[in-house]
């Protein structure tokens, strides 16, 4: 394991802070191709961050004009981009929801804004979370994208504590792009690609070390299949 206080470690973090997009193109992508030739034989199979979705559900509170305007202002400060108001697609009488009713906010970051938000998220925002112990690798979905939830907006440096009337969180989804060959098009391979890239980007995943004791991918795949079988067996008994 590398020493977090070594000069190489400090230099690597500084390069990421300077320009995370340039560091990926000039450094991380080349290292992935060199160190994992069996996984990334083609440059198009190397995982890449495509976009970041940020969502906030307000529910019936969105009918309050002041709450909605405040949320839009917070979104604009945090992401540097004005959000889109999400509306109900159909009416649900039991939840008092009408069709086209305003329910929340969403925004999609690409390009420079995406990398700027990612740098802030990794190196500044997570450090402000109380008793933060890392993020779980189980938050990957079947497409290999990673979703995490933040409980409050106060952890972002742009938000002033005195200006916050109500504590509200976010849902953040990192969408990855990688063209896997047909031999590696399973969910396991998509998750593995995203996990490798996030570790290189210094994303604080806490339970990646669990799989370091296995020497090959087939062994890890067997463990995943075993867990899936046990889970199905437990469901069938309930």
Structural write-up:
With 238 residues, this protein is α+β, with helices and mostly antiparallel strands. The protein folds into 2 domains: 7-206, 50s Ribosomal Protein L5, Chain: A (2-Layer Sandwich); 213-238. The protein is 39% helix and 15% strand. The chain has helices at 7-18, 20-35, 65-79, 111-125, 187-200, 217-237, and strands at 48-57, 84-87, 102-109, 146-150, 170-177. Helix 1 (7-18) crosses helix 2. The chain starts with 6 loop residues before the first helix and ends with a helix. 18% of the residues are buried. The model is unreliable at 233-238 (pLDDT under 50). One of its GO terms (molecular function) is rRNA binding. Keywords: Chloroplast, Plastid, Ribonucleoprotein, Ribosomal protein, RNA-binding, rRNA-binding. Pfam families: Ribosomal_L5, Ribosomal_L5_C.
């Amino acid at each position: 394991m590398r020493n977090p206080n070594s000069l190489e470690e400090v230099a690597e973090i500084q390069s990421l802070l300077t320009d995370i997009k340039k560091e990926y193109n000039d450094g991380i992508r080349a290292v992935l191709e060199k160190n994992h030739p069996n996984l990334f034989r083609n440059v198009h199979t190397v995982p890449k961050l495509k976009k970041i979705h940020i969502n906030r559900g307000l529910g019936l509170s969105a009918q309050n004009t002041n709450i909605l305007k405040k949320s839009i202002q917070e979104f604009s400060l945090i992401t540097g981009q004005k959000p889109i108001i999400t509306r109900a697609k159909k009416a649900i009488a039991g939840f008092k929801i009408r069709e086209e009713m305003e329910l929340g906010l969403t925004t999609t970051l690409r390009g420079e804004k995406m990398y700027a938000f990612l740098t802030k998220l990794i190196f500044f925002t997570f450090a402000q979370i109380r008793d933060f112990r890392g993020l779980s690798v189980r938050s990957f979905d079947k497409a290999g994208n990673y979703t995490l939830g933040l409980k409050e907006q106060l952890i972002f440096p742009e938000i002033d504590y005195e200006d916050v009337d109500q504590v509200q969180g976010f849902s953040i989804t990192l969408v990855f792009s990688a063209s896997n060959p047909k031999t590696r098009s399973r969910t396991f391979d998509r998750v593995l690609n995203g996990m490798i890239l996030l570790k290189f980007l210094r994303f604080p995943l806490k339970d990646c070390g669990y799989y370091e004791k296995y020497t090959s991918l087939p062994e890890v795949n067997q463990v995943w299949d075993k867990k899936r079988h046990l889970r199905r067996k437990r469901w069938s008994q309930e």
